[in-house]
Design a protein that fits this description.
Blueprint (H helix, E strand, L loop, with lengths): L21 H18 L1 H7 L5 H24 L17 H11 L8 H13 L7 H13 L1 H12 L18 H17 L5 H24 L5
Protein name: Biliverdin-producing heme oxygenase
Organism: Bradyrhizobium ontarionense
Keywords: Heme, Iron, Metal-binding
Length: 227
């Protein structure tokens, strides 16, 4: 979710008010939500270095079904003209999350209703042609590749976590994260060009951010942080 920080600034001068591409449209629609996501909930606590081992494990436990749903739906559309362009197994996070949870070994972690709602939204996004899945991949994976790397460093320092507990933020099958991010953005652009209408995907991107914010705030409360 904390993505696009260094190379995604858009020069609007000379452009029409209508975004020229799917990626531009999603950026514009989610700009304010992106800022909110960084400044609220458990994400804000982690960025401030106020996380705890249990809070991190709780975050992972609730993200696991989200990624399982996203990866399942993406693979189901692997052969399609638009969504198939952004199916990249090297991005999949489910196995890494399970490995981290095993290392952290924190018992009694609940799956919150907000995570279940998030899963349901992803499954609905995968119905039919599955084009709204582009928005969920954009929100989660570009965030993991960018802002997630910042969170990883903070967690390693503030919680004294070893790399074996931070697999979620590691991408061993990607040699150059910046080049991969650029390639993935290009794939999203190509997927957008293969579609007739962008509106539903753009609104799904806003929904994805709102679902992330709701989950982050619920996790903040469940982990015992004051709002």
């Amino acid at each position: 979710m904390l993505d696009r920080v260094e190379s995604d600034h858009i020069e609007m001068a000379g452009r029409s008010t209508r975004p020229a591409s799917l990626l531009d449209a999603m950026r514009e629609r989610t700009r304010t939500l992106h800022v909110t996501a960084e400044r609220t909930g458990i994400v804000a606590e982690l960025l401030r270095g106020r996380g705890t081992r249990r809070a991190y494990a709780l975050l992972l436990r609730n993200l696991l079904p989200v990624y399982e749903a996203l990866e399942s739906e993406l693979l189901r559309h692997e052969g399609t003209r638009a969504v198939g362009l952004i199916v990249r197994p090297e991005l999949h996070r489910s196995a890494a999350i399970r490995a981290d949870l095993a290392q952290l070994d924190v018992a009694g972690l609940p799956v919150l209703p907000e995570a279940i709602a998030y899963v349901s939204a992803i499954q609905e996004a995968g119905a039919g042609a599955g084009h709204p899945l582009l928005a969920h991949a954009y929100t989660r994976y570009l965030g993991d590749l960018s802002g997630g790397q910042i969170i990883k460093k903070i967690l390693a320092r503030s919680l004294d976590l070893r790399p074996e507990s931070l697999s979620f933020y590691e991408f061993p099958d990607i040699a150059d994260l910046q080049r991969f991010k650029n390639d993935y953005r290009n794939a999203l652009e190509q997927a957008g060009a293969a579609m007739v209408e962008h509106g539903a995907v753009v609104e799904e991107a806003a929904l994805a951010f709102m679902l992330n914010i709701a989950l982050s705030e619920a996790l903040q409360a469940a982990a015992g942080f004051g709002a």
